[in-house]
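All the exercises in this workshop are built on plain-text protein records. An example says more than a description, so a record of this kind follows:
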Amino acid sequence: MATYYLSPTDLTFLYQECPRCFYNKVLKIWKRPYTPFPRIFGDIDKCIRRTLHGHSCEFLLNKPGVFDTTNTLIKSGPIQVGDHKIIFSGYPDIRVYFEDGTIGIIDAKTSYPKDSAIKLYDRQLHSLRSTIQTPQIGDSRTVSLLGLFIATPTEFILDTVTGASHFQFDSVFKSVEINDGEWFEFLVKVVELLSGKPPDDNGKCYWCVMQRAVAEKRVDEK
């Protein structure tokens, strides 16, 4: 029986892009080198979170509660999946503490409100939900809402006299359906992947293609 430590972000991007790289990272065989992420998106994210923090969520969610955007790492206790266990850890962008005692988890994005984005972040949000409902420390809390707060730039406004300027954004909340059955089925697939043989190179991953090319070159040189 093995215990796998998983990142919500890796389940969203790395698993989708390349199961082989995901397998290698989780099992600590090989990890992709760090690639810089444009700082501008992080700065926009901080602005969104700073504006929402401590304010009522009712204008957006039609339900009384308060936004909490504190940057806090959360960790789950062991979650049993077949003969193995999973432990999640990650940073929720926005938590909502509803007056009924439940919690909402919202991810802030600078993007376009496409339906494909909702499906993409489904795994990340569900893993954070599992973490809050099965915490490593403290009491379990019911997560009643998952969703995306999407900000889309629409206009650049410039005062030609003072030089002051700012961007105008449209914002929208997109709810993500909570589906425990589908989520557990996905975790079963993840555990089957991690407990089996290394996945084949899918031929689409840049890092796997590069590793294969280097290995083939070394063979040719011998």
User: Anything to note?
Assistant: The chain has a mean pLDDT of 91. Residues 3-221 form a domain with the Lambda Exonuclease; Chain A fold (CATH 3.90.320).
